[in-house]
Design brief:
The structure holds 2 protein chains of 2 kinds.
Chain A: H1 3-15, H2 26-33, H3 47-60, E1 64-68, H4 74-84, E2 90-93, H5 97-100, H6 104-107, E3 111-114, E4 123-127, E5 130-132, E6 137-141, E7 156-162, E8 166-167, H7 170-181, E9 189-193, E10 198-199, E11 207-208, E12 215-221
Parallel strand pairs in A: 1-12, 2-3, 2-4, 4-7, 5-8, 7-12
Antiparallel strand pairs in A: 5-6, 6-9, 10-11
Chain B: H1 8-16, H2 19-41, H3 46-62, H4 64-77, E1 81-85, H5 88-101, E2 106-109, H6 113-117, H7 120-126, E3 130-133, H8 136-143, H9 160-170, H10 183-200, E4 203-206, E5 210-212, E6 217-222, H11 226-232, E7 236-242, E8 246-247, H12 250-264, E9 272-276, E10 290-296, H13 300-303, H14 319-322, H15 327-330, H16 341-352, H17 369-373, H18 380-393, H19 399-412, H20 415-432, E11 437-438, H21 445-448, E12 453-454, H22 461-469, H23 473-482
Parallel strand pairs in B: 1-10, 2-3, 2-4, 4-7, 5-8, 7-10
Antiparallel strand pairs in B: 5-6, 6-9, 11-12
């Protein structure tokens, strides 16, 4: 007998299920309902408090955060970040409409390349799908404008996040993705990113920058700031 | 791998004599439990979330056949392939077949206990394919040809000097006198080495912390980001996961994620939680072109409905290891197979057989700490006792121990006689144990060869209790505590 049938048959026998389902399938029903379980109160805040909590939690896990008034401030901020860390004036940006439309040449003297991540990228700039205040988590969604490789290959990752897209909890972001992609569907990769890469595998010593970025810098675009 | 579980007793003795291991375990025993407590204290809903996480998995296990079919359909809908495998051999062959079709020479791997369970690395090597572990701890133990000694900290047993020696012996193209004093230098060397492997790999093999039936998604949790470079860069992504990894929805996955990292490392959430669904989409700039899930049974379906059913709720956080007095004394390797600690002592006999693993359920004080910290509230002590009962029924263990257990059971079933015997025994022992402890005692050589046995203080608990019933102050206090 094929493995699939043998495994399923054994499960059915153990669980006392017949293979032809009579009536409602409890699994499909549960999936269709996708009800929310207990959501910690921590994230139930108004917008300004949500942004504050996001900043507090992201900072706690070694990310750095700067709030800016508009996307137009992004090039200056990126430039300042590179200077501060004495990094080469060279970045790889996600081919995202809100980054491509910025006037990088006018505002900075950076070499700006765009596309997916490559092995020799030093600093990448990408755009978050959303944020979760509960834990200071970025939500990145893969797509033609947001290649996943930019989140992991460079040593420095700069992420632009719109304040309006910071939710209190993970569930709110799932709702948004479901509304956009349809029930039961997701983009190829959704990444929750909470701080820069780390390891404690050698003598339980915490070290940042294990395989992913050593530094995570978040620019929150919040028009109410300006 | 060939289990060394039958040699548990010798393994344990060796472990206790291993100084670097003991130093590492001492550090672990403080760090992980303390950070878990801090994380739990920061989240008032933590205990309620544990209840819900348990209930979610119970619901899945009751409907596992339906959920597996729903999950499979979603993987196929999103362009992926599902390969059902009954046992380790089928899973190894399936993975090799996928690698061969992809014309693979190098396979990068992110940490997966199931891949350890099916020993896929050795099999790929035998067949001319190079598997490369990419989690830093797993990479180190792969170079040393050792199994992991902890679920989430596989190289916990090693000192930085041992790691430096391992790198010097393995990275022989680098200058022999390079400075590897600091952990940072070791990390930099591994990062550079593995970066080449990530960029050159043909297939990426990952495990799965969960499989989500709603979307056909696999969840990967890491702090390093290695699972992400493993699943994103190669042309083919293969997921190896056992059938009980299913959760129904994105909401259910989120609930379990809220208890996973807090229980494991004491983080609120791990750095990277990744949800992979199918291969790359036509417009995507990166991601794998092929997506395969190797869905492994390997004894799980037999556990459904058995005395060990609840073990299938385990999410492999390692909390039971970090809090176990036995694990903290002997480390993971003593258990002699892939898993260790209380969860290993329950699971291993299910997977390799009670005969081979007979010492493991006995390697427990049944103190109950494991159950008290398990995010999925798995009754580990109860199941350890189930294994002991089975062993007794199967006439395993030494004849002296069996005789003692039988005698004790006979006596315990006769309360009046039991109390009389205990009163006499306690009186006798307290008379001879003049200095408060025994250096040797008949039938207790296993204990007294290593340490003294404390002599009874004076009277049995029940006698003291009854004295209290007649108005004695200490007895009244005791009754208060009892009721």
């Amino acid at each position: 007998m094929a493995a699939r049938e043998e495994i399923l048959d054994r499960l059915r026998a153990k669980l006392g299920h017949s293979d032809a389902l009579n009536g409602e399938n409890p699994a499909l029903k549960h999936i269709e309902d996708h009800h929310k379980n207990l959501i910690p109160k921590r994230g139930s805040l108004d917008k300004a408090q949500r942004v504050d909590l996001f900043v507090q939690e992201a900072t706690r896990v070694n990310a750095t955060v700067v709030r800016v008034g508009s996307f137009d401030d992004v090039p200056d901020q990126v430039s300042a970040y590179l200077r501060e860390h004495q990094l080469p004036a060279k970045i790889k940006i996600a081919p995202h409409h809100s980054l491509k439309s910025l006037d990088w040449q006018q505002k900075t003297s950076l070499m700006v390349d765009e596309g997916r991540g490559k092995g020799d990228d030093g600093v990448s700039v990408s755009v978050a799908y959303g944020g979760v205040a509960e834990t200071g988590t970025l939500v990145m969604s893969s797509g033609p404008q947001t290649p996943t490789s930019l989140n992991f290959l460079p040593l420095d990752h700069i992420v632009v996040l719109e304040a309006d897209r910071i939710a209190g909890d993970y569930e709110a972001v799932w709702e948004r993705l479901r509304a956009q992609f349809g029930p039961g569907k997701l983009p190829r990769t959704v990444n929750w990113i909470t701080g820069p890469s780390r390891t404690a595998d050698i003598e339980q010593t915490l070290l940042l920058g294990a395989h992913g970025p050593q530094r995570l810098h978040i620019l929150i675009v919040d028009p109410s700031e300006s | 791998m060939q289990p060394t579980s039958p040699n548990f007793k010798q393994n344990a003795r060796d472990a206790i004599a291993d100084d670097p291991l003991q130093a590492a375990l001492a550090k672990l025993a403080v760090g992980f439990p303390m950070r878990r407590l801090e994380a739990a204290a920061r989240l008032p809903e933590f205990e309620d979330l544990r209840d819900q996480a348990r209930d979610i998995k119970n619901h899945v296990l009751e409907n596992l056949d339906h959920y597996l079919e729903a999950y499979e359909k979603k993987v196929i809908d999103s362009g992926g392939h599902v390969h059902w495998c009954r046992d380790a051999k089928e899973a190894r062959e399936t993975i090799l077949d996928i690698c061969r079709k992809a014309d693979a020479k190098t396979v990068t791997k992110s940490k997966s206990m199931i891949s350890e369970e099916i020993a896929v690395n050795a099999y790929l090597e035998e067949n001319g394919i190079e598997p490369v572990e990419t989690d830093l701890g797993e990479y180190i133990i792969q170079l040393r040809k050792e199994p992991p000694s902890h679920i989430i900290a596989p190289a916990i047993h090693l000192s930085k000097e041992q790691v430096a020696d391992t790198f010097r012996n393995s990275h022989i193209d680098l200058a022999a006198d390079r400075d590897l004093e600091e952990p940072r230098a070791l990390l930099e060397e591994a990062r550079a080495r593995l970066r080449e492997k990530f960029l050159g790999a043909d297939v990426g093999l990952t495990g799965a912390n969960m499989l989500i039936a709603e979307t056909g998604t696999n969840v990967l949790v890491t702090n390093e980001g290695n699972a992400d470079l493993t699943n994103n860069l190669p042309r083919v992504h293969v997921v190896i996961a056992s059938i009980e990894k299913i959760v129904p929805t994105l909401e259910d996955a989120s609930t379990i994620l809220r208890v996973l990292a807090r229980s494991a490392t004491g983080q609120d959430i791990s750095v990277y939680t990744t949800f992979c669904t199918g291969p790359r989409r036509p417009e995507d700039l990166d991601g794998p072109e092929e997506y395969h899930v190797v869905l492994l049974d390997n004894g799980r379906s037999e556990m459904i409905g058995s005395e060990f059913h609840e073990m299938l709720r385990c999410i492999r956080c390692g909390a039971c290891l970090n809090h176990c007095p036995i694990y903290k004394s002997v480390g993971g390797h003593a258990y002699g197979w892939v898993y260790s600690g209380p969860m290993g002592a329950v699971l291993i006999p299910n997977l390799i057989g009670m005969e081979e693993a007979q010492h493991l359920p006995n390697a427990s004080t049944l103190c109950g700490k494991c159950e008290s910290v398990c995010p999925m509230r798995i009754p580990l002590p109860k199941m350890l006792r189930k294994w002991r009962e089975r062993q007794f029924k199967a006439e395993m263990g030494s004849s002296t121990a069996r005789w003692a257990l039988r005698s004790w059971a006979w006596l315990a079933k006769r309360p009046a006689l039991y109390r009389w015997t205990m009163t006499a025994g306690v009186a006798l022992l307290s008379q001879f144990g003049g200095r408060g402890r025994f250096k040797s005692l008949p039938l207790a050589g296993g204990w007294t060869s290593k340490r003294d046995l404390a002599a009874p203080a004076g009277d049995t608990f029940i006698n003291q209790y009854h004295k209290g019933a007649r108005g004695d102050q200490s007895g009244a206090l005791m009754r208060k505590k009892v009721h």
